[in-house]
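Problem 12. The chain below contains 80 residues. Write out its predicted structure in token notation.
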Amino acid sequence: MIQSNKGEASDAERLNPLAMTIEEAAHVARLSRSTIYLALRDGSLTARKVGRRTIIRVEDLRQFLAALPAFESQRVDGDV
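Solution.
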């Protein structure tokens, strides 16, 4: 990790993180924490452990989101 001052992340790291916490992943994906935890439990999203901390790699979150089914609208009779 590149540090500009002791304990400070560089601008590039703040803008392009390699991993994030569950709370951060929920925020950037616009999902609830519960949805993230359910995806972790069912195996559709992967997390890593660093000590007691749980992190989600950005690539894993992107893959999870890409694998979600596409929205298909349901036509109501009479709609064209």
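Discussion. Strands lie at 19-21, 48-50, 53-57. Students who got a different answer should revisit the alignment rule from Section 12.3.
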